[in-house]
């Protein structure tokens, strides 16, 4: 950072402490100036750190990777939930795999047509720490429609009753460690079986700028698992590598060309990023993705 970037009125800034995530794959890094480290622990699944930052609120780190910040999580949680739910005609039963910070659950439950939302998070400590440091993300945890389970999402989906779900949201960490098995055809086959006809799977699909090969592999594995339509939507997410993220939707026995535009435009709940125009814009593929993915 050049001296010009230093806040001129903050002489202590040269001594500021920073959390920095180095992203080897893209030869890039991202940092936030911090006030203090609030918590650190090793769970049976991963390490979790919580920081207080000077400008981005609280910051959760899992295995050294940025997960959630107070300031920008709305971008991700809204785009992981509302495009799929406004594409579906009327989603009543939703399952979230991962999502332990509970931000996606909160967005899903803003949809009054949802009758049951199950969050299947392998690591209970993520949720307990989110309740402590990100209480605003957990405000729907006591909703009578919400059910929080702390088990492996791979096993949950394998045991799920056939044709019982309308939407599955995979809000997991990167495809390593406990999340690795969530990015392959075997898992997608269990999702396909669990979904009703016209059901939708949506999964966080990393950065379109540096993970296009992963997105391609995910989409072909989804098609191999008999999903008839796939579509990748992009959105900003500053704290993740490259600051540009994506989610990929896959549909069982129907297409993904349209969505309930009027419903999105007249929605009765607050969002800070998602609206009908953003939904439409996110469906437009940048040229490099159109060429690479055939969208
Ligand atoms: N927004 C973040 C991202 O895109 O990287 C994900 C946030 S959420 C904290 C990710 C969660 O996925 C973690 O809490 C992790 O414990 C959970 N997870 C990873 N593998 C899982 C699995 N097999 N079953 C259930 N949850 C899993």
Structural key phrases:
single chain; about 300 residues; alpha/beta; Spermidine Synthase, Chain: A, domain 2; Rossmann fold; 2 domains; 7-stranded mixed sheet; 5-stranded antiparallel sheet; 9 helices; 12 strands; disordered N terminus; binds S-adenosylmethionine
The helix/strand order is EEEEEHEHEHEHEHEHEEHHH
User: How many helices does DSSP assign?
Assistant: 9
Using only C-alpha atoms, the radius of gyration works out to: 19 Å
Helix-strand category: alpha/beta
Question: What is the name of the CATH superfamily of the largest domain?
Answer: Vaccinia Virus protein VP39
**Could you say what the CATH topology of the largest domain is called?**
Rossmann fold
Calculate the terminal CA-CA distance, rounded to whole Å: 38 Å
Q: Ligands bound here?
A: S-adenosylmethionine
CATH architecture of the largest domain: 3-Layer(aba) Sandwich
Q: Tell me how many strands there are.
A: 12
